[in-house]
Structure to design on (89 residues):
């Protein structure tokens, strides 16, 4: 049975707030609360791929310590831009 969009968003929101590293919880959770519902299905697919990665890897990509894999760049950039826009206010 296919998962409907609302159920998918709820599942990804929960997953965003329960990453394992508090910094990742805060960045991904806030993004999920404020931006994730506006993503297209393709963007949501990419975001879900990003969410499947391990927190230590996400943190090194997020901070620029290591190069982000090409297939995850856009999804990570959306989260980074959201975080930086909130930090600036």
């Amino acid at each position: 049975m296919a998962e409907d969009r609302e159920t998918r968003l709820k599942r990804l929101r929960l997953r965003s707030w329960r990453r394992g590293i508090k910094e990742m919880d805060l960045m991904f959770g806030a993004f999920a609360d404020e931006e994730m519902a506006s993503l297209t299905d393709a963007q949501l697919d990419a975001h879900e791929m990003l969410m499947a990665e391990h927190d230590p890897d996400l943190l090194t990509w997020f901070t620029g310590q290591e190069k982000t894999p090409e297939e995850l760049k856009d999804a990570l950039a959306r989260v980074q831009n959201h975080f930086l826009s909130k930090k600036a206010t």
